[in-house]
Amino acid sequence: MDNTADDTGNLLRLAIKHNIVPTGGSDFHGSFKPDISMGKGRGNLKVPYEVLERLKSISDGV
């Protein structure tokens, strides 16, 4: 099931409000889903590399 634009906006606002790093998943499974590439999913989903960098910086501080 895909999120609507409203769903995405609401989830992003919640993440920001609660200081949570917003992430996304491409549902990449290698050759089992050849129409989906790593970091890019259906529609306009793109997970920026900065998300990984932010998650790494948080985990380094733990």
From TrEMBL:
SUPFAM superfamilies: PHP domain-like
Superkingdom of origin organism: Bacteria
Gene3D superfamilies in alphabetical order: Metal-dependent hydrolases
InterPro entries: Pol/histidinol_Pase-like
Protein name per UniProt: Metal-dependent phosphoesterase
